[in-house]
Structure formats: C-alpha cells, structure tokens
Amino acid sequence: MFGLFETPSFPDPVLGELRRKRGMWRGEISLGGITAALALPGSRAAPDPQALDIARSIPTDYPGWRGRIAASLFEHYAPYAEAVAAGEPEGSAEDLPRIAQPDQVWQHASVEFVAVVTLDRELSVEIGYRVAWDEEHTLGARLRNGRLLELNGSVLPP
Question: What gap in Å lies between CA 59 and CA 3, rounded to an integer?
Fold first, then answer.
C-alpha cells in the first residue's frame, strides 16, 4: 500500500541512482572536479533513453565545451565591466571581478545544475551557471550535439 507513495528510483551504471521528483529524474553528475545536480526527462517508469545517453556523455564532452562557454560568459560579463568603467550607477567597481580574458571567467562562475531538456522539440543540454558579476540571475549554456546554441541570461533550475 505504501509503495504507491514511494519516490521511484532508477539505478544507472554511469550516473548512479536517479530519483523521480517534480516530474524529472534527478541525481548528480560529475564535471571534472565538481559535482552538480542533474535533471532528466522521462516517464514515471524510467528516464528517457536518449536523455540518459546524452547525460552519460556530458562528463566526457564537457571539457571540449568549456572554451565556447567561457567565451559566451565573457561576452555576458563585458557590459558589466563597461558600465563600471563608465561610472554608471548600476556598476560597482568593488563588487565586479576583474576579468581580462575568457578563460578567467571560471574563477568567478560555478555550475548550479545540469539538465537534459527539450528545446525546439529536440533534446539539449542546459548547464546553469551562477556568476559573480550577475548575482540576480542563473545563466544557462544551452548545447545540442556538441554545439553551443546560446547563453540564456536567466534560467531556472528544472
């Protein structure tokens, strides 16, 4: 009788145990030296098989994506630096990190979550980042087939 209310789980040999919660399969994923929350779509019975395949490849693919993501994060940072340099009231020189080139963004960015989501009817990867220069938003790097589609300026964890 109580089995009806148990949170379903799915053991995956690569990703570990996934649990269904709030309509998604959830677990953790390791990206180099960090561990982040992972969310995958699927039915009540199991995660989507294609989403599982995509998620299993993320740890291996992520190092190759980092350069493009860093460039996009740096592009997002640039207007903040310009505002501070221009003395605009929105910008605070004390709070803004000094970033001179894209590879320096990683000192000021952290992964909040990783999700396999449907965008334009196709499965894609979204990596949510918290960044020091924009504390009000979580930025979402959206990728499909290894290609960076966009850096969304405001995303919510799934």
Answer: 34
Residue with tokens 């290894």, as numbered in its chain: 146
Q: Cβ contacts of residue 77 below 8 Å, gap of 6+? A: 99, 105, 131, 133
Per-residue pLDDT reduced to its tens digit, 30-54: 998 899 999 999 999 999 999 999 9
Angle at 33 between CA 31 and CA 37, to 5 degrees: 45
**Opening angle at CA 127, ends 121 and 128, nearest 5:** 115
State the Cα–Cα distance between residues 30 and 22, nearest whole angstrom. 22
This prediction has a pTM of 0.92
User: What's the per-residue H, E or C state across 52-72?
Assistant: HHHHHHHHHHHHHHHHHHHHH
